[in-house]
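[job 0412] stage=complex_fold ligand=2-acetamido-2-deoxy-beta-D-glucopyranose status=START
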Amino acid sequence: MRRGNGFTYNTMVLLIVVLQYCGFLAHAVLNPVDFLALQSIRKSLADLPGSNYFSSWDFTSDPCSFAGLYCDGDRVVALNLGDPQAGSPGLTGRLHPAIGRLSALAELTLVPGRVVGSLPHSLSQLKYLRFLALSRNFISGVIPAGLGQLRGLTTLDLSFNQLAGNIPLSVGALPALSNVILSHNRLNGSIPAFVSQSLARLDLKHNNLSGWLPPPPGLPPSIQYLSLSSNRLSGPVDRALSPLNRLNYIDLSMNQFTGFIPVNLFASSITNLQLQRNQFSGPVQPVNPVTTPTVDLSYNRLWGEISPMFSTVQNLYLNNNRFTGQVPATLVDRLLDSSIQTLYLQHNYLSGIEINPTVEIPLSSSLCLQYNCMVLPVQTPCPLKAGSAKSRPTSQCIEWKG
Ligand SMILES: *[C@@H]1O[C@H](CO)[C@@H](O)[C@H](O)[C@H]1NC(C)=O
Ligand SMILES: *[C@@H]1O[C@H](CO)[C@@H](O)[C@H](O)[C@H]1NC(C)=O
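[job 0412] stage=complex_fold status=DONE, emitting structure tokens
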């Protein structure tokens, strides 16, 4: 009589059990696409001698418990390849294109090691990727333009590899970037415009980049750290850099930049200012005392008198320029009371300094005055590079003044 109801009841129990099992599956067993992708990724990489990263990668157990792997439900969301412990020798092999099938991945990192080959184009399929850091390996080839599809990417660190070719325009167009670290590669071409209004760090040093800085708004005002050292960049910088009012670190050294140094680079918020070995010209007249601890303007074509606003700097390199006139008395005072540790003025056209010839320069301080248009009032130890000539030939000094 009650058979109908009993049947329904049993079916319901069974259904609940099946549903629970499915729920269990969904939460504890990795999605088969991710599982197969991980197997391919594993096969194309190996531990370098001394690294034990892959010892936990046993595919008879749940991959979500592997070292460096994090799941959310049945999907891999973070893959940190290699033992992150400092000094671990890292991995060898290649990045398998199957990485692109881990479609829920938000974070992909690789420890320093000897991974070779190119960046898989399939990385562009990782549409939830936010953090991509593959520095200090031997990755070659180009940066795939498809990375421009990773709309949520905030960190891109491919530094210390062997990447060549351009920085794709599409990468500059990524809207959420906050850290771009592509230093120490072989990148060439010009710097693309960066559109992200949250870009805080742009590090492109030691590449082969050329051309002018992108005109405003190509470098967003949010940039705090800017290093472009050791490239072949050229042209004036004032238009591109004047809008950057949150800078605290700037290194443009060893390029071929020309024109004036924008005055906002002497703002008090800047803790490091390296502009040496360019072709900057013009007088340098900061409006306020410069409190940046180290200011290096050496090896440029700067001229005019040295501003007393520099007397608040601790290490001041103005050597190998075309400065003229007297060294400001405040600079000398600050040197003698040890507030200035380095004052390099050699290889300019300076005509005098007011300093008592018998004064003791503090041992902690270095003053170099060699090769200027004056007779040296004190003996000071100079770097070897300053040469042995104490003064500039008089003929050059007369010519300069005339
Ligand atoms: C960049 O280098 C590649 C070779 O790696 C070359 O074909 C290309 O012309 C270079 N581009 C620029 C702008 O120098
Ligand atoms: C940089 O680019 C120039 C011109 O394209 C080329 O002659 C030079 O070899 C490159 N330097 C490096 C280190 O790749």
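The pocket of 2-acetamido-2-deoxy-beta-D-glucopyranose (ligand 1) is lined by residues 164-165, 188-189 (CB under 6 Å).
[job 0412] exit 0
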